[in-house]
Write a structure and sequence with these properties.
heterodimer, A: alpha/beta, 12-stranded mixed β-sheet, 7-stranded mixed β-sheet, 17 helices, 24 strands, about 25% strand, B: alpha/beta, 8-stranded mixed β-sheet
Chain lengths: ~550, ~300
């Protein structure tokens, strides 16, 4: 393969370091340029951006080990980014993404091995809010054209954050890509980082770019005092990075409300909220709202102005809640489907950020969003569907992986699934697994459909909990248990799995703990009193004082 | 005080003449570019559906620097929509924007102020109007759903210490008599001030729980990594309202309350800004109504 020439600028602390780098990268000898003994990484980036002889420049530390096919992969990366027809400026091999990815739900993406660990994600190029400076691929032509102007604050810290934030503030995207992976033989100097984050000039520069009062980096969190908060309306870094990275605008999502038209007030409420969500979602994705039902012949005219209604001809006398999902998945052509129950509602507040997340995420993704219970009284006939509510349990998208251990914490409206994954679920599952249908689809997508989990942080949906009328509060659990029997047998008997069931993040509690040696410091502490015991003791003290007795 | 430079159409006395119209209502909405989609696709249609009589919907973009042009959807013949141009080339505060809308557009006995991110529900505005007529209140506030404000109100009289400006009906004569909302707050707490002005003028502030409005706003949507303007102005205006109503003693108490606040940088900036604004504010003297009270940092009520 013929590779275009991409100069690799090596920032070397000494001639010895430069020579060592040269010797271990003979395969890149024609591409290497050395900057030895410079005092400012900022100046190197400024020089690179101003170097009009090259459109792409790779700037690397002197302690990285670049693999044999680094140049070929870097060319491939540049071609891929160009093919996305976006304005991109900076790409690195580790960085912070504006959404969580993978089973760990990480925002810190590492396509790198170093003394802290190895890679934690594979294959996909992701938008980033900042990248680490060990390897930086700069689209210098784009940076110049966009007027990216990096001041020289001197030193070797924060230059990577500064160039990323300046780039994003100009509407140019920043990416983290596996193509730039390498080994970075550096432990990093936390002292130097700490000293740098007290460098007020650079922080003041950063604080004028975005509304965020701290920025997460691979080296930790940098607090940025906002001095211009008063009347300025600075943009959000996450949203800005997503906007800059948006390269797909044809991704379509169907928000589907299942109903039997038994509670029209709640259905209207749900659809109103869905339409408000869609209005706020912007144009990065194409959103549609559908009402689906197993009830044919119902007059749906009052809902026609709100959504398209599809009534499926399904077997009467059966619980069709899951079969309705299959029918919907086969009937609709949207890429993704988001099922919302007719007593749920959506919050529009994060709609644009979620839409941008979907449009910039890998093609085969499933999205988990935060949801919350809201307790409310049962609506009386003719009464408004907006009674006072009490916010209840919050379901965090980031905890989705506990589902692999059999604990489902993601309600139906807390996930957006690829329609293809729903269509691939075996038909007998739809028939036998009636309750826990959302858990089935979630696990099927994770285990069999090889989708990329994306964690979106932000409350997006509300779930109505009433004294009566919710499946989740049914006292008789027979239907739940029967469905769980079907679900577990399906999973346990499947010949083809990704062996992720039982996947655990963190230490395995099943492993025997080392025998504890009791010393003065490890001896069991005095047991903490229960609340009841504390109150009883307080009461005894009170009585003794009243009786004029000495303390116990 | 109604100080709105840049508006040439106002009559010399600062107000348009009002006429008593039983079935007509002015609805004033201050919006930003970020609200335009919701405004056109959701809020205006919800207003058109929920008001079965003449209504004048008056809009102004608070951002005079980069206000986007847009076309409002066609509503019914009963509902007119006026977009007042913001010719100031600056960002208008909440109070200033509403004062402009009031002086330029309000002809009716009372008017509704409404946040641009709300959805109005059938019957709610009529319920507010009925309560306004029966109670003679200066302000009648609706209930926000799903996040109802937990502030106190009397379950019998429905009196409440203050009314949120997100969705409330205001008596036009009262508004005129006090010179509109105090523009020095810029954002947040001008509604508390307006409510306290009502109590000071022996007028009532009423909470109407049977007039819900959908308003997806509040704490669950705040992000820890972003200082919201609400946080900033809540601190700055907490000091301002403490000074305005309680004088030096109120200022001392407010500063003492803020001394334990862990948002040090934010508090320092807000205090500096407050000092600059304070000079133009003369503290009120005389007896205060019992509903004019401070119960915590930016808190002016007991919790229900």
């Amino acid at each position: 393969m013929n590779c275009a020439k991409i100069p690799i600028v090596v920032v070397a602390r000494s001639e010895e370091a430069a020579t060592a780098f040269k010797l271990r990268h003979l395969h890149l000898a024609n591409e290497l340029f050395f900057r030895v003994g410079v005092r400012s990484y900022f100046q190197i980036l400024i020089d690179s951006i101003n170097d009009t002889t090259n459109d792409l420049i790779c700037v690397v530390h002197d302690d990285v080990f670049l693999p044999m096919d680094f140049l070929r992969r870097t060319n491939t990366l540049a071609d891929l980014l160009e093919s996305r027809a976006i304005r991109w400026g900076v790409c690195g091999n580790s960085g912070i993404t504006p959404f969580g990815v993978g089973l760990g739900g990480n925002n810190i993406i590492r396509f790198v091995a170093d003394l802290h660990g190895g890679a934690n994600f594979q294959n996909y190029i992701l938008p980033a809010t900042s990248v680490d400076g060990n390897v930086l691929l700069l689209n210098t032509k784009q940076l110049r054209e966009a007027g990216v102007n990096l001041p020289d604050f001197g030193g070797f810290q924060l230059y990577d954050i500064a160039v990323c934030l300046e780039t994003i503030s100009k509407g140019i995207s920043v990416w983290v890509a596996p193509h730039l992976s390498c080994y970075h033989a550096s432990e990093g100097s936390q002292n130097a980082v700490d000293a740098a984050v007290n460098s007020t000039d650079c922080l003041r520069f950063l604080s004028t770019k975005f509304a965020n009062n701290y920025v997460t980096t691979v080296d930790g969190t940098i607090t940025i005092a906002q001095e211009a908060i008063r009347y300025s309306r600075l943009p959000d870094l996450e949203v800005s990075s997503l906007r800059a990275a948006q390269y797909k605008n044809n991704i379509s999502i169907a928000i589907v409300v299942r109903t039997q038209f038994k509670r029209p007030e709640l259905l209207t409420r749900a659809i109103m909220s869905v339409n408000a969500f869609i209005a706020s979602a912007g144009t990065s994705c194409v959103w549609h709202c559908y009402i689906v039902s197993d009830q044919q012949g119902v007059d749906t005219s009052e809902f026609d102005r709100l959504a398209k209604t599809i009534a499926f001809d399904l077997e009467p006398e059966t619980d069709t809640r899951n079969i309705l999902i299959r029918s919907t998945a086969h009937a609709l052509e949207e890429h993704y489907i988001w099922f919302v129950d007719d007593d749920d509602w959506l919050f529009p507040n994060h709609a644009e950020r979620l839409s941008l997340t979907i449009s910039t995420a890998p093609d085969r993704s499933m999205f988990f969003v935060d949801t919350s219970y809201f307790c409310e009284p049962c609506p009386e006939a003719g009464q408004p569907a907006f009674p006072p509510t009490q916010r209840g349990r919050h379901f965090r998208a980031s905890e989705f992986s506990s589902g692999l251990n059999g604990i489902n914490v993601i309600p139906n409206c807390g996930m957006i699934l690829p329609a293809a994954a729903l269509r691939a679920v075996p038909s007998h599952c739809y028939e036998y697994i009636v309750y826990y249908e959302d858990f089935l689809h979630q696990l099927y997508a994770l285990l069999y459909a090889e989708v990329v989990p994306i964690i979106f942080r932000g409350l997006v949906a509300g779930i109505s909990i009433r004294p009566k009328g919710n499946s989740v509060t049914e006292e008789d659990r027979s239907k739940w248990n029967a469905s769980l029997a079907e679900l577990v047998s399906f999973l346990a008997m499947s010949p083809r799995t990704s062996q992720l069931l039982g996947f655990r993040l963190g230490p395995n509690p099943a492993e025997p703990k080392p025998a504890a040696v009791e010393t003065d410091r490890t001896r069991a502490p005095k047991r903490k009193k229960s609340l009841y015991e504390s109150i009883a003791a307080e009461w005894r003290r009170f009585k003794r004082r009243r009786l004029g007795l000495k303390a116990e | 005080m109604l100080v709105t430079p840049g508006y040439q159409h106002r009559r010399s006395d600062g107000f348009l003449g009002r006429r008593r119209v039983d079935h007509s209502l002015s609805i004033n909405v201050v919006f930003g570019n970020e609200h335009i989609q919701h405004l056109c696709a959701v809020l205006l249609p919800s207003l058109a559906r929920s008001i079965p009589y003449d209504a004048h919907i008056n809009l102004i973009n608070y951002d005079g620097r980069s206000g986007r042009h847009f076309t409002v959807p066609t509503l019914t013949r009963q509902h007119s929509v006026t977009i007042l141009p913001n010719t100031t080339n600056r960002i208008l505060g909440f109070a200033e924007s509403h004062n402009v809308l009031f002086t330029e557009c309000v002809h009716d006995d009372f008017f509704l102020i409404l946040n641009p991110d709300c959805i109005v529900l059938d019957g709610s505005i009529e319920t507010l109007i009925a309560r306004m007529r029966s109670s003679g209140a200066a302000i009648v506030e609706g209930r926000q759903w799903p996040f109802e404000h937990p502030k106190e109100y009397d379950p019998i009289t429905l009196e409440t210490p203050w009314a949120s400006g997100a969705f409330c009906l205001i008596d036009s004569d009262f508004y005129h008599s006090i010179g509109g909302m105090d523009e020095r707050y810029f954002l947040y707490m001008e509604d508390v001030d307006l409510s306290w002005q009502a109590w000071l003028h022996s007028r009532k502030v009423i909470y109407e729980p049977h007039a819900p409005v959908i308003h997806f706003s509040g704490g669950p949507f705040y992000r820890a990594d972003i200082i919201s303007t609400e946080e900033y102005f809540s601190i700055r205006n907490f000091l301002l309202i403490s000074w305005k109503y309680f004088g030096a003693e109120g200022e001392d108490r407010a500063l003492a309350m803020l001394s334990g606040d862990n948002r040090k940088s934010l508090v320092l900036q807000a205090v500096e800004d407050y000092k600059a604004v304070k000079a133009a504010v003369t503290p009120l003297t005389g007896a205060l109504h019992k509903n004019i009270k401070i119960t915590g940092v930016a808190t002016f009520h007991e919790l229900r």
